[in-house]
Amino acid sequence: MRQGSPRPGHERGKMHLVGHNFRVELKELIVIPNIAERLKTPPETKKKLGPIKNAWCEFDQAYGHAIRNCLSLGYQLDELVNIDFLKDYLQEP
After folding, report:
1. Where would I find the H helices in the chain?
2. pLDDT at position 13, please?
3. Which residues, in sequence order, are CB contacts of 51 under 8 Å at separation 6+?
4. Quick one: which of 16, 23, 47, 56 has the most CB atoms within 10 Å?
5. CA-CA distance, 41 to 37, in Å (whole number)?
6. Does pLDDT of 84 surpass 50?
């Protein structure tokens, strides 16, 4: 993706790095066994992983951003959507 181009999920004044709309909440999606085994969870850290002090990311298990703004999760879910692995979990456009 070229620099400056909006990703899916871009809303006026707000950017969601996980740009797909799923039928279930992201925190529920990432623990579904066949999906969870395909996701590479980051190593545990005590560091804040983003600019928002109190925002908790269920995927990173760290503060700093919400799960909807998780860069690592967004890229991995994009890959699974592109190979149609998550087609049953996507909402209709």
Report:
1. 26-29, 33-36, 71-82
2. 39
3. 64, 65
4. 16
5. 10
6. yes
